[in-house]
Amino acid sequence: MTGDLLFQQYPFVPHIWDEMKDAEAIRRQYLSIYETVSKLSLQDLEKKDSLASELFMSQGITFTVYSDNEGIERIFPFDIIPRIITSTEWEHIESGIKQRLKALNLFLKDIYNEQQIIKENIVPAALIATCPHFTREIFGIQVPHDIYVHIAGIDLIRGDDGRFYILEDNLRTPSGVSYMLENREVTKRIFPDLLASSNVRMINNYPLLLHDNLVSLVTRQTEDPVIVLLTPGMFNSAYFEHTFLARQMGIQLVEGRDLLVDNQKVYMKTTAGLRQVDVIYRRVDDEFLDPLVFRPDSALGVPGLMSAYRKGNVAIVNALGNGVADDKAVYAYVPAMIKYYLNEEPILPNIPTYQMKNTDEREHVFANMHKMVVKETNQSGGYGMVMGNSATEVELENAKKAILANPRSFIAQPIIQLSTVPCLIDGKLQPRHVDLRPYALCGPNGIDIVPGGLTRVALREGSLVVNSSQGGGSKDTWIVDMEGGH
Amino acid sequence: MLSRIADSLFWLHRYMERADGMLRLLKTSYILSFDKVQTNSITWEPALKIFTSLSPQEIEVLKKNDTAALQYILTDTDNFNSLKVIVTRARENARGVQDQITKEVWEQVNHFYHLINHPALPEKLSGPDAIVVIDALIHSCDQFCGITDSTMPRGQGWNYMNLGKFTERCLLTAEFTSAFYKKIDFDFTNEQDILYWRSLLLALSGYELHLKNYSNQNHNYNVAQQVLFDRNFPRSLYYAFERAHRYLLEITATNPVEGTAKLDRAFGRLHSYVKFSDLAIIGDPGLEKYLLIIRKELNDFGKLFGQIYFSYS
After folding, report:
1. What is the ipTM of this complex?
2. What's the pTM?
């Protein structure tokens, strides 16, 4: 079979925005892919597909599935056809994310200091007080440059109207950026000519930007500051990413057991004695960071870390307590925050969100359960989610019971048909739903977003859940400057 | 350098050196297993003794079954010193220090790991492809050495890696030598022909050197001379101790913490035990004890070194 036939057989599904094809023809930004792929045979494409798998495997970009006491190495599924976003679309996304992050940073500063936004009744006090990630222990701590969210992985989706919506704000330890970077490296190997001729914007300066931002947080007067990446260890599913980033930035990768706190300063244990640490880019969740303050059973953190943080002797990235801003119930108030702090209208819209503790909204949701997705407010990774259109009656009833028992822990949103892109599956090009996670970096000089992001794909037909823990894969994401404008 | 990193680099190289030594011994044993007529055939016994913790009775049973012996030593995870286990540990150490080793070194360790974990491997080991598999694994070890040498920066990490590598080499040479001399009860007058010693020499990659250097027939003596004291033979005790000591001195000089003087004394004493010795001083019944002391003191040194530099948890 030739590539040309693959495109001819690509279905058009009404009421779903396909990013490659509208009802009539292939969209302009996908023409270069069409031209390249249609000249290839299916065997060529499958060869490229297996080359991509080998590249991931040989670099150890794998996760381990344990069974029968033996670990089996798996790669995260990668689809070779890139996803394309035009530079005009990108500029819209970029300005929307920058605006949103500015507001969220101001919100975090406010909520852990003056709490004006509560006093003025923009955000209900009860909502914040009941948020499990509102961290009283860090109240009043001054963070360098008033930056709380240094790294954000805000998830966007594209609805059937072709518009981008904010799905959720990941402001704690968003992961996946190494896949964004490695996907591009793999594409360079499998579609070198296509990439070179398509005016794709560069993304590989991400680690350098991040490193510059981390250096800017050093407060100690020293020529040779120590910046470390704190990992939970090699059994963490994102361990590859931790090593990747440490290597790309030239910083130390440490575990909790490599650090200690003495006299409110953090040190790492080296073969030449102790060395003071200035900045910790942590990939360990808040609750595990300091067993003296948070979970006492945590072996991943460093006892006394909070005392050093409070004293300002160490910077921690991202700041602690950010979970209050990416709570799924607080999400609904972000447009109000943008209005309140910036006096601007949100550039990127939210998805309508129903608060389950509000009786009217709850009844509306209960009456339309089949059109709703119910989410637990403090869950992520696709867990704690009930899709009304595919759940059984029993599951829906159970969801209702759970909501009634603890309404603050749930929100509901209308199910949005995510946009689709072509994927090479079972020897055919098939449409699959995707989202987009660009990575934004906030530093003292402003917000940088490398032009691209991680496109996550729901590989099962019809599925809207893109999380890797739920059978999702990923794609390289191209931001393309179109010749001759749009 | 973080203590944990130093620890992992040290052990990564110890395990890789052990894998290399094991594979060379296995290849020799495998090829010799075809020569059943050979008198005093040694076949799988030394390898089983050194790389497993089986009882003498179990070894007696296993040594007659080529495939079973090979699979037990290479791929059986019940054997805590099997190649599969060793390489998995090497890879875990490499994974823990991925940011401290070059991408090339990591990919090579990872490649080796996938090679030994290939689902078809145990089956291949039971057929005529066994030697192809062993060769591929040895090749992988060689590549690891070459890639490490050509990509790793010299410095602290390098010193820990090489100290690990050469202390392991000292131990392996002492173990191999001991196993082969034990078979003749450390009796230098019990003359063996070169075919007997060829297996030891091949396992240490020193057979050709031996043929070049020694023309008389006093093999028992010559072989011991070469594997213990030949200063140009890279797997001799003399050479491995020289190198290990050099890296240790670099480490103690750049990391002068409490206890380094003690460490220098302990290793210096042991090194001089090899450096200023010869077969006449050891005397033929003394070889067994001599090798035993070296192994024991090296292990003691390893413990002391770990206490001083790797105490992090």
Report:
1. 0.71
2. 0.84
